[in-house]
């Protein structure tokens, strides 16, 4: 299937494993140029090696996406080989720990919010001027079915995925005026080792 991604620069957060790595492989198969960010240096390096061996251009950045500084520095590093050009942002990074409400401490709430929600805000804010300058672009947020159908033991995770919604009407108008797009995707749940996340179709 030709999705028209050949030569497009796609930035993926939380790219080292799971949905992020699967998306990177799918984009690579379509001829996209990849900019991958994750905090797991070993797994990120392994994925980059695999994709480069297939002829895909790949840049990487190891960054803590729970902070503004980490998001900004990671994106700058990952996009540097592409002269800061970007066509697609896939906000995918996320943390999800299965635990009852009474076991979620203040620090847990704050960390989950910073990773699952604020990283999306910060990454989108960072790349939008680059997309405006390019005249086009697409931002996809990875949500979760748990936002629509909550289950027990995800008290801090669910609110962050409710926040990963399409932009407001005003925001949509601003994006359309710049020929940029934003979307939220969730096609199910993925569970591995006590963690979960939505599967996005991008």
How would you portray this structure in words?
The protein is α/β, with parallel strands linked by helices and 202 residues long. It has a single domain (9-198), classed as 3-Layer(aba) Sandwich (Rossmann fold). Helix content is 41%, strand content 20%. The protein has 6 helices and 8 strands. The protein has helices at residues 18-29, 41-53, 68-79, 106-134, 157-163, 169-177, and strands at 9-13, 33-38, 58-62, 88-91, 137-142, 180-185, 189-192, 195-198. The strands form 2 sheets. Strands 3-2-1-4-5-6 form a 6-stranded parallel β-sheet, sandwiched between helices. The protein has a two-stranded antiparallel sheet with strand order 7-8. The protein starts with 8 loop residues before the first strand and ends with a strand.
Summarize the structure.
This protein has helices at residues 18-29, 41-53, 68-79, 106-134, 157-163, 169-177, and strands at residues 9-13, 33-38, 58-62, 88-91, 137-142, 180-185, 189-192, 195-198. It is an alpha/beta fold. Strands 3-2-1-4-5-6 form a six-stranded parallel sheet, sandwiched between helices.
Q: What's the gyration radius in Å?
A: 16 Å
What percent of residues are in strands?
15-25%
Count of distinct strands: 8
CATH topology: Rossmann fold
Give a quick account of the main beta sheet: strands, pairing sense, barrel closure: 6 strands, parallel
């Amino acid at each position: 299937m030709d999705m028209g991604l050949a030569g497009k620069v796609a930035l993926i957060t939380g790219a080292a494993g799971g949905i992020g790595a699967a998306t990177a492989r799918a984009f690579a198969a379509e001829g996209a140029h990849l900019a991958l960010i994750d905090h797991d240096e070993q797994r990120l390096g392994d994925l980059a090696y695999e994709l480069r061996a297939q002829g895909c251009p790949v840049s990487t950045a190891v960054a803590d996406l729970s902070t503004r500084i980490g998001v900004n520095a990671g994106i700058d590093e990952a996009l540097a080989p592409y002269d800061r050009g970007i066509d697609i942002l896939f906000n995918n990074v996320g943390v999800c720990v299965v635990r009852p409400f009474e076991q979620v401490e203040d620090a847990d709430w704050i960390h989950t919010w910073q990773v699952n929600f604020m990283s999306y805000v910060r990454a989108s804010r960072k790349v939008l001027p680059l997309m405006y300058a390019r005249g086009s672009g697409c931002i996809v947020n990875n949500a979760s079915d748990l936002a629509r159908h909550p289950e027990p033991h995800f008290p801090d995770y669910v609110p962050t995925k409710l926040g990963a919604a399409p932009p407001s009407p005003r925001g949509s108008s601003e994006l359309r005026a710049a020929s940029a797009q934003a979307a939220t995707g969730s096609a199910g749940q993925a569970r591995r080792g006590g963690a979960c996340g939505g599967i996005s179709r991008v």
